[in-house]
TrEMBL record:
It comes from Pararoseomonas baculiformis. InterPro entries: Asp/Glu/hydantoin_racemase (IPR015942), Asp/Glu_race (IPR001920). This is Aspartate/glutamate racemase family protein.
Amino acid sequence: MTAIPTTSPRRGVAKGGKAIYGAPLGILMLEARFPRIHGDMGNGGTWPFPVLYRVVRGASPEKVVLNGANGLLDAFLEAAADLVSLGAEAITTNCGFLSLFQKELAAHVCVPVATSSLMQVPWVQAMLPPGQRVGLVTVSGSSLTPRHLEAVGVPLDIPMEGTESGREFFRVLIKAEKDDMDVDLAEQDVVEAAQRLVARHPEVGAIVLECTNMPPYAAAVQRATGRPVYDIYSMITYFHAGIRPRDFAIR
């Protein structure tokens, strides 16, 4: 007859030192009022794992995208440090234009930092056949400067297309002309930008979406262009897999 254990197995010593547990990824958010639909980086339901959010007050999309995030570095450094003090083990941001702060943020918080979807470009380029290139779809092609690209190792001659000429995406997200958004029109703006990109640059073999609000439209872009599409969702799920790798221990 098998004996029934009368005590629970030992669980070892639990390590302390944090305020919040079980959410190792911290996301620095811009201050905005447009809808964060499912798939948007700022919608908690987008992620298959828990995350910590911190809104950086005063960091509007217009200031970050159109004005080069001038005067905002200290606010982002403070917010990132706050997330780490709460328990974040890695930091990301919800604007691709914050590639400008990649080195400063990583040095300040001393944990892994991935500021921008643009960081995927060298990796995606390495996967493509000879003669093909990565192309970018960005919320604002006229505002994405060599400084943004150089900060994360993106070639300065990369083909890119923006959404400034669209009817909805740019004016709601960047110009903040209204709080509501016509999702179908926003998707059309992003898809049409991608179509212009591949029409002008048929050598584009894969597309990276710079804007962190574009993942809801990635599948539509892939269908419309026939190219693989990478965005902040693909990058951050990869990023998170490194800080919380799946445990394949034999059981």
